[in-house]
Write a structure and sequence with these properties.
The chain is α/β, with parallel strands linked by helices and about 375 residues long. About 35% of the residues lie in helices and about 5% in strands. The protein has helices spanning about 10-35, 45-55, 55-75, 80-100, 125-130, 145-155, 220-225, 280-295, 305-310, 350-360, and strands spanning about 100-105, 185-190, 200, 230-235, 260-265, 275-280. The strands form 2 sheets. Strands 1-4-5-6 form a 4-stranded parallel sheet, covered by helices on one side. Strands 2-3 form a two-stranded antiparallel ribbon.
Length: about 375
């Protein structure tokens, strides 16, 4: 026995007592939890006495239940009734007309109408991963811009919204260029045929912050955000804004903040900050908004899509530098360089989409 300290046998006895108390506490917690799941009328007198003697546990379990219910409600999709949605869209239309500088932030929710999954919706990427289900990459070869995309294009055409922060691109491809890129690794494995420099993607990879210099045009985006007096958020969960403080104006004093309008079926952490929250599908809201503004939504035509006329073909020696399915010029024309099965049947392996998926998968232990 060390001077002034307990002996080994005393320490072991104290550890046994501690573990016994913990197990008794866990068992009591399980008992109280089972009782609380019963209706009050179905509880016996003995169970009632146990609850009365376990006020702290009852309070803790009820708090856990409220938190679980709150999280569940936040994940639910809610739709405004048609008349309420029209009323809100009329208010939004007035804000768009009166805005001196309108900035639109879009999320994955604007593409669900094109069968491209979002992240936190009922069938979103993160939602499925949390449920332990596998996720496959979306097949973009037949996806087309949605009504929301075309509406934003018309608003820009009418000079009602700023899209000046789009970076210039020397190379446009008709296939996914992120096959070999990942977090903080933007080189695609191909080189510029003029200067020989490595070509980089222009994707914000999952986990990248707004401090990135290239390939993103943060300077122009920051300038646009600082001028905004109205912000419209379409189909975004608004859960990663703290990663991009320079692109978000809501940190300004309340008197100088732009008015915030949110279109989303689910709860967002900025709902309480919004001047108006519209619970509706992006396409439905934008159709009503364009009707209120008296603007026609232009139809989409693949034959008139500039991506095909601007696309830079692969040069000699680059044919094997990608395996992702290429876009078609039309539904009748087979995709150039098609190399096999569509993306929808292949597991996610890498790129901007795959990097986010692998962040939530557990590594297998090597034995």
């Amino acid at each position: 026995m060390a001077a002034g300290g307990p002996s080994r046998s005393e320490r072991k006895a104290a550890e046994r007592v501690r573990r016994l108390r913990e197990e008794q506490q866990r068992e009591r917690l399980r008992q109280v939890s089972r009782i609380l799941r019963k209706a009050a009328a179905e509880r016996s007198a003995e169970e009632g006495r146990l609850l009365a003697e376990s006020e702290d546990l009852v309070t803790e379990l009820q708090g856990r239940s409220r938190r679980r219910e709150g999280l569940k409600r936040r994940q639910e999709e809610v739709c405004d009734d048609p008349e309420e949605l029209r009323r809100k869209v009329r208010e939004l239309a007035g804000a768009v007309r009166n805005a001196k500088y309108l900035v639109v932030y879009t999320g994955a929710g604007i593409s669900t109408a094109a069968s491209i999954p979002d992240y936190r919706g009922p069938n979103g990427v993160w939602t499925l991963l949390q449920k332990g289900r596998s996720v496959s990459a979306a097949d973009l070869s037949e996806a087309e811009p949605t009504l929301t995309h075309m509406s934003i294009a018309r608003l820009h055409e009418q000079k009602l919204v700023c899209t000046a922060c789009t970076p210039n691109r020397e190379y446009v491809r008709v296939f996914d260029v992120t096959e070999r890129t990942a977090l903080h690794r933007h080189q695609t494995g191909r080189a510029c045929h003029k200067c020989g420099a490595q070509l980089r993607d222009t994707i914000v990879h999952f986990g990248e912050r707004g401090t990135l210099g290239q390939p993103l045009n943060w300077e122009a985006a920051t300038q646009a955000a600082s001028k905004a007096d109205t912000i419209l958020c379409l189909g975004s969960s608004l859960k990663v804004l703290k990663k991009y403080p320079r692109l978000w104006c809501m940190t300004k004093p309340p008197s100088r903040r732009p008015k915030l309008y949110i279109v989303n079926l689910q709860w967002t952490p900025k709902d309480d900050w919004a001047a108006l929250k519209l619970h509706g599908k992006c396409d439905d809201v934008m159709q009503l908004l364009m009707d209120e503004l008296g603007l026609e939504i232009p139809p989409y035509s693949r034959w008139q899509d500039p991506i095909f006329s601007l696309a830079t073909p692969l040069r000699a020696g680059e044919e094997g530098s990608h395996t992702r399915k290429s876009l078609c010029r039309s539904r009748e024309e087979p995709p150039p360089g098609d190399r096999g099965a569509p993306l929808s049947s292949a597991p996610v392996l890498g790129g901007w989409f795959g990097k986010g998926c692998t962040k939530r998968t557990k590594r297998k232990k090597i034995t």
